[in-house]
TrEMBL record, chains A, B, C, D:
It comes from Bhargavaea cecembensis DSE10. Its EC number is 1.13.11.39. This is Manganese-dependent 2,3-dihydroxybiphenyl 1,2-dioxygenase. SUPFAM superfamilies: Glyoxalase/Bleomycin resistance protein/Dihydroxybiphenyl dioxygenase. Homotetramer. Belongs to the extradiol ring-cleavage dioxygenase family.
């Protein structure tokens, strides 16, 4: 059988300890659109996201990420991954089609790090009501309707304190992620890896953080805007809404410009992101950064806070 | 045997009737870097292009495009494509490794439209001298060294007056391009197609123009900049250098912002380009525009000249 | 007595034949804030305008501009101008303080061209409600709350078919405007003049248009944004709201970037504007453009329509 | 006699302990144009500066600012200021016309703080050679020719450890600067003041720093760019040239966006600057910030270093 493949990052299922605050943050300040609210779960996406949702938010006792969904390249890849995972001794749970609104049959499992990933192929592309629909037929919603108004969901950044080498191995060899840039020490242990199945530098970054409270953490989720000035405008908007943030700055790794701001409901950090480069070369060799270059790798220029501080404020992934 | 695949657009081999003018235009005004000059051929690329060259320019009796190079996903894909093409009755010429500086063994052939494509896998990544090398290890040259300074090569736009349906068929079924957006008439004849092997909306656009002088024409080649304002800055730079141009404007098809300016040496039009969207969905359905929507499809807003005018100023492809 | 002086452009009193359309346009699309609605007149300003209003809109039988208000440098300048104007044989009408909400005692009179100007000194700076107030104490409202969201009112552009030389003379010698750039013919007749009392290139432009329907016309009013990309974002917003417009482009005269869009309620054209230069030199010599340079003077680059077309769509000033 | 008035900030006369480094910095990295080199002094300006020079640089034993030149509104204001200053008991030295190339007769004197100011009216506007001249007749040089390429000189920021109240008094009452924003303590002592004779928020900022090494210091000089993204592009250019810097960030006071970078030859800090607001209101009340708001006043968002650090690296003014 052909090796199953992941096409793209799909969505993050977020739990908030203060749903109203999270909704105000994501809908009014970040400016995401709401596809649907079903059984108290709000399904959100950016104006340029093509599918049902890229973020769901619901009320819970604490803020954490339930799972991270990824879309496969073909329908049969969902089954293919189940077989492959079980072959590897991974417990796989089937999620019946449409149990998650908008999402077809899926498989759900834990990484060695403890993060829950979900793989699915089928997803709905609901029609948009006319007053919110873009006049462009290749765009979902009207751009710039409210708040910061990023174009699309971009990537997730995950922290782990356990089974790091196994996780990097698993992501590359089982799930098919390609290592694009990495941070390593003199023993060539990977301390952080930026990996993708797409031509982005990363759909997911994994950072080894032995000191975290629980083994599987989420450092941030990221939405992409088209222009650098959009990030500066985001800074103004955040300040006018009373939010503090880290940035603006530019990463050396990925070359992307950023602001980090935290959803006050869930504690989930959101990176507002632009720029960077695309990788079209089929023989791309990972760009290797030594741990002595960590500060420069993280921050080419601009505002950046103490990494320890940023670590302390990750949220749990289950 | 596995189906061979193209990874990306590689380079355009351009002939100029006034090499000095072309070099001034591409190196000083557009701001490309020169990798090498060998036997009177100048090999150029943008600061963010990772490989040997994305454009070659040489002196000739008239301005035209010799061929367009594409990199395959694997080394064996070059051989794979040769077999596939010969199976289709296409004449294939082998280009020995390094006959084109920087480029390994390649196959060259004509599309039904008459355009010459080349496929290769091996390509050199020459070391950059320190004073031109970026301080970022994931970037080739220092950014913003001179002129407009785009990041990377993006796409080509080709015109044809012959065998249009066969060409669209060939590009999709033999070469593996995916149709992303298209313009069609009531008979569902494709009048123009935007196709890619990457996650860009197009690596190549093909436009049917029965009225052109020779069957295979090049409408433009395109370099990509990161930000919208870079295109406005390009406008200022072009005017200060005495160039007229079309734009700035924004396409509905691809959602990208543009300026079109013509190399006075070769007559080859260059599109300065930013924005647009990426396609990660594996089941992308081509966005279909009816010929009655042609003007809106081409121009969402901004400056745009008469399409006839733009057609008359294409250059020949051999 | 010291020569009275004008400090700045104040506001435009606009009448709309469809007030609801005008309010939607100015408040939701352009993104102006409403200071107050009094007796059916809506008083609007941008988030960075410091005073009561820079635009008023009210219902009428047709769209036209009632008058254009200017603030004097000192309170006694209002009286000083009355004396000066009466000395010149100009009819002056006194407007009692607060007859126009927010505006103190004023004098109102006609230019030789027929446009009505008003001069006042006192103006209210009403407190802004906390939820709309900027967190910056040097800024009036929160930026980017809705729509295009320009920073401040910038200038007016007026057309006249009568008494043009007298009007230029009057503006400079009586009202104290300095000529900054001008368009002239071989006889050194001024065909258009860009004049200011501030360090902007123009607070008012006067264009001679013998062919207009009524002698006093308003070509456009203009709001200023900080960045070039704001004008591109405005283009997207206008298209998503179904508006056509002229631009984006850049003027040679003033060096400013623009979009022109028309309020569908009043027919009044609004220029969205950024860039340009400031004049600090006390001995500035007007930049002189010959009528043969008119097209280049108007459009350095970008989209621009036939001047005749733009003339036909001016609105009346009374 | 009418009160003499200053029209605008003119130029800074800078001494460098490493002239070659300073010239590389100002000409190649910042991208200023050189008007002339006379007797080892280099006269520089930005592409949008209209007059002879806005910066002079020459070799000396250490880096310091010799004096800061200001242009008066009228020729007779130079004499008027001399009389006014002598009336105040200030020592005034006459600088013969053209002793400073490009600058007519001037008076030079010390502020209570010890900084040397010069006042002049006449200044040359030398013709620009065709290959460097802008195609726009209202602009001096071609824009974007090299380096960061700011538009124009903007302001100076000065520190003083002596006679602070007398200096604020002198600047306002003798020289005619208007206080636009200020930082004060509970006793209403001014700790920092942003003052202008133009419609900018400040042509000069004065900051009280009792702890500095010598009483009169220069914190930075500032050049202005049109767009926010220009500051981000400057960040990239500086990094590619091996420069560290503070920023990008946005001030609350003045609302302007900034980067601070230091000339390695003279030690003089340069602020790359954009945005901010203009003051047209004749009755502007200074915006008052309490010393408890100092950090927020300095930094609305973005990168900012410890103020102490920035103070230590000021250069001397003589």
């Amino acid at each position: 059988m052909e090796k199953p493949e992941i096409a793209k990052l799909g969505y993050v299922a977020l739990v908030s300890s203060d749903l109203q605050k999270s909704l105000t943050f994501f809908r009014d300040v970040i400016g995401l659109e709401e596809t649907a609210e079903i059984d108290g779960v709000h399904y959100l996406r950016a104006w340029g996201d093509f599918q049902h949702h890229t973020l769901s938010v619901e009320q819970g006792e604490s803020g954490y990420v339930k799972h991270i969904g990824w879309r496969t390249k073909k329908r049969e890849d969902v089954e293919g991954f189940r077989a492959l995972l079980e072959e590897q001794g991974v417990d796989v749970r089937t999620v019946p089609a449409w149990e998650t609104p908008g999402i077809g049959e899926a498989v759900r499992f834990s990484l060695p790090s403890g993060h829950t990933f979900e793989l699915y192929y089928d997803i709905e592309k609901p029609e948009v009501e006319e007053h919110r629909r873009s006049v462009l037929k290749n765009q979902t919603y009207k751009a710039w309707a409210k708040g910061i108004s990023p174009r699309r969901f971009d990537h997730v950044n995950l922290h782990t304190s356990q089974q790091a080498p196994e996780t990097f191995e698993f992501l590359q060899n089982v799930l098919g992620f390609k290592m694009r840039e990495l941070l390593e020490n003199d023993n060539q242990d990977i301390l952080a890896g930026w990996m993708s199945v797409t031509q982005l530098v990363h759909d997911v970054a994994f950072v080894v953080r032995p000191e975290t409270d629980t083994p599987a953490r989420v450092h941030h989720i990221s939405y992409w805007s088209d222009d650098s000035q959009d990030i500066l405008r985001a800074a103004d908007i955040l300040k006018e809404h009373g939010f503090d943030f880290v940035g603006p700055g530019k990463h050396s790794i990925s070359q992307a410009m950023y602001i980090y701001v935290t959803d006050p409901g869930s504690g989930c950090r959101v990176e507002l992101f632009t720029g960077g480069y695309l990788i079209f070369e089929p023989d791309w060799e990972p760009v290797r950064w030594h741990e002595s270059e960590r500060a420069f790798g993280n921050t080419y220029w601009g505002d950046s806070i103490n990494a320890k501080e940023l670590v302390k404020t990750t949220i749990e992934a289950r």
